[in-house]
Amino acid sequence: MEKRIKIIMSAFFVLVLALGLTSAMVVKSVDANNFQPGSTQDISVKIKNTLGSDAKDISLILDTTGIPFSVIDSDDSINTIYSDDTESFNFVIKASGDAKAGNYQIPYTLSYSLNNTPQTPKKGTFSLTIEANPELVYSASTDTPVVGSHGKISLNIVNQGLGDAKFLSVTIIPEGYTLLSGSKVYLGTISSDDSQSESFNVVFDKQDPILTAQVTYKNFDNQLVTKIVNLPLTVYSKEEALKLGLVKPDNNLFYVLSIGLVFGVWMIVKKIRKKKRFNKSQGK
Predict the structure, then answer these.
(1) Distance between CA atoms of residues 220 and 218, nearest Å
(2) pLDDT tens for residues 226-248?
(3) Which residue has the higher pLDDT, 76 or 129?
(4) Do residues 118 and 158 share a domain?
(5) Residue 280 pLDDT
(6) Domain that holds residue 75
(7) What is the 3-state secondary structure (H, E, C) of the chain?
(8) How many domains does the chain have?
(9) Is residue 206's pLDDT more than 60?
(10) What are the backbone dihedrals phi and psi of residue 63, each rounded to the nearest 5 degrees, phi first?
(11) Domain annotation covers residue 251
(12) Residue 125 and residue 83 share a domain
């Protein structure tokens, strides 16, 4: 008999404990869109009363210390949330203008009373997301830009956006020049307010070629983005390069003619001397 009573009492305490664990004031959901840096929006936090009693004087306080959000306006409190009912707290939230993209945990404190007795505040967190995409700006420069010459093409990529460009790679599609180095390079991540450059060895085949590059990267949502970049290049003919002082004149012909002239003069002088010696030997 005593054993049966102990079993019943144990089952009773387990049931009470289970009810205590499943009955609470809980954050049921958070209605919010993703933020852009500097944007403001209304969010709604729904609180569900799973207690067996009506909750009174409910307040929800958000702590944005150390995270790039600020609370512009909010509901002060809700008088009553009846048992098994749901009510919403509304907040006006602003994201910082220089916020980095990412998921941020927002700490909250939920306070309420039961039967006119304040209960221990419930603490927790929920997530808000700031999304920001990269904004890539491209430029190109050349070294020894003369038709028929070995030179270099440099591609510079600047990220002026607030999001990172991840897993970035560049594939060069030659047009108007012969590529001597590899056509594909991997640059990795170009962070916000950062830049990277890559140079390619080429032989310029014609004037004013186009640097065509296929750039691929992943954005904040890990979506693959592909861009085709066309950048005009200035390449000069040899005559234009000479006039502009980009290359030195070819003096090889001058050197050859000079050597030939000296050799010719030497041969003439040698011949004259030889003739004089011959005449002298003949008594002339």
Answers:
(1) 7
(2) 999 999 999 999 898 788 777 66
(3) 129
(4) no
(5) 66
(6) 27-130
(7) CHHHHHHHHHHHHHHHHHHHHHCCEEEEEEECCCECCCCEEEEEEEEEECCCCCEEEEEEEECCCCCCEEEEEECCCEEEECCCCEEEEEEEEEECCCCCCEEEEEEEEEEEEECCEECCCEEEEEEEEECCCCCEEEEEEEECCECCCEEEEEEEEEECCCCCEEEEEEEEECCCEEECCCCEEEEEEECCCEEEEEEEEEEECCCCCEEEEEEEEECCCCCEEEEEEEEECCCECHHHHHHHCCCCCCCHHHHHHHHHHHHHHHHHHHHHHHHHHHHHHCCC
(8) 2
(9) yes
(10) -110, 105
(11) no
(12) yes
pLDDT digits (tens, 9 = 90+) for 103-125: 999 999 999 999 999 999 999 99
What's the mean pLDDT in 120-143?
A: 96
Domain ends where: 130, 159, 184?
130
183 pLDDT higher than 90? yes
Same domain, 95 and 158: no
Domain end position, chosen among 100, 130, 160: 130
CATH classification at residue 52: 2.60.40.10
Query: pLDDT band for position 270 (50/70/90)?
Result: low
Domain match, 159 and 204 both: yes
16 pLDDT higher than 90: no
